[in-house]
Each structure stands twice: as structure tokens, then as C-alpha cells.
Amino acid sequence: MDDMALRLTATSRSFGAVRAVDGLDLAVERGSVVAVLGPNGAGKTTAIAMMLGLLPPDSGTVTLFGGTPAEAVRAGRVGAMLQDGAFVPGATVRDVIELARALYPHPMDTGAILTAAGLTGLAGRRLDRLSAGEAQRARFAFALAGDPELLVLDEPAAAMDVAARQAFWTAVRSYAAHGRTVLFSTHQLHEADDHADRIVVLAAGRVVADGTSAQIRAKAGVPDGASLDAAFLALTSSSASGTGQ
Ligand SMILES: Nc1ncnc2c1ncn2[C@@H]1O[C@H](COP(=O)(O)OP(=O)(O)OP(=O)(O)O)[C@@H](O)[C@H]1O
Q1: Model-level pTM?
Q2: Does ipTM come in above 0.95?
């Protein structure tokens, strides 16, 4: 049995002439919180789509808990929050949570989902009337509903205000504290610094650095006290121009 929640081995995916993900090797231990950083076009969303079985790799393999992504999704072991996840028009927050709960074998309690996602006061609100930040929280609720072992979150806190972000990250940390695994992508480097045990920096579809924030700074050759932004720019500037064209 694979003791990793997630494993990508020599995984590649191209779109025409663009090599979005280029021989990516990444293994994520169960119980860890991993942030994936990278400039626009680095391949984060493509890698996440392959992790979830939404996009087949051209070459290489992707396994979740030692099996295929489809098996893990079918078994309710994975919850995901995607950037452009659309909602059923006219449905309420509670409707979509109940819909998600019905898809999973061991769903979380509706009240616990609403609390974790900060939506208790908005349960009866129509999804198409939510603000952008509230809609992100509803996507988080959908991802949490099945009480999955692995949460995969693509730029999850985008559009959330300061209080919503704080509540969101508290919920993520408490989720991970129960031995579950979280992988999230972000452009907010401080979120990676503050909330991830491990940071993976991608550029041009490859891993250019992987470790704690101190290890990332050391690899980039910036001092310990320097911002992660300085390390990020040092690590990604040479390869960033080679992608996203
Ligand atoms: N369906 C597609 N068709 C053509 N090109 C694509 C497609 N999806 C992604 N790409 C290209 O693959 C590369 C990687 O895109 P991807 O969305 O994975 O990057 P990203 O790191 O998530 O970027 P961002 O930070 O802007 O969200 C980009 O050059 C993008 O234009």
C-alpha cells in the first residue's frame, strides 16, 4: 500500500506546443499541508486537474492513496475546490451542501459544514446571490461535505475578505490537525508561509524548489528574514519566461 496521499511520477501534459506540466515528480505525505506556488502559467491548475482525474496526463502516472484518482473520487476520499466551479442556478447554500453530502458515503454533519465554511447565517441564501467571497466559502463547503481524507484547493482564498480568510485558514488547519491531507495553490505567498508545512514552487511545469519556507529561502539564496516573495522571484524568474506564451 502506498503511504502517500498523492503521488505524481514523471507526469507531463501539453496543450499543443505548450508543455504545461513537464515531468513533474511530487509525493505528498498523509497528514501534511502542502502549498503549490508558481507564476501565472506555471502549470498549477493543470497539475491539480490531473490529480483529480479531470485531465489525463500525456505521460507519467498519478495515484491517490495508491489507486487511480477516479477510484479515490468514487470512494469519497477526495474533496476539491476549483477556480471556476459553477453552481446550480436558483439553489441555496443548504441545497448544494445537501447535494454534496448525498454523493459521499460518510458526509459531515450539515451544521458542522456550515460552521467550518462560515456560512451558518447564509444557509438559505441563493447561490447566485452570493458575493464572490461568499461563493468561495460555498465551494469550500462543497469540498468539505464528504469529510474527505484529501482536500485539493485551487486558489481557495481568492476573493475572501480578511475575516473570511482567517476563518477559512483556521478551518483548513483544524481539518489537517485530524490527520487529513491538504494541497492548495496560491499566489499569496504569505498564505503558504503561514499555513503550509511544505511549499512546492513550480515554474514552466517543473518543480524548482520544494521544502519548508526556510529551505525555500536558502535554496533561493535570500536571507532567513527576507520575504518569501524575494525567494519566489529569484527561483522563478529564469524559467517563467519559458511558459505561458
Ligand atoms: N485547455 C488548455 N488549452 C490550451 N492551453 C492551456 C490549457 N490549459 C492550460 N493551458 C496552458 O498551460 C499552461 C499552464 O496553465 P495552468 O492553468 O496550469 O497554469 P497556472 O499555474 O494554474 O496559472 P495561473 O497562476 O495563471 O492560474 C499555460 O501556458 C496555459 O496557457
Answers
A1: 0.92
A2: yes
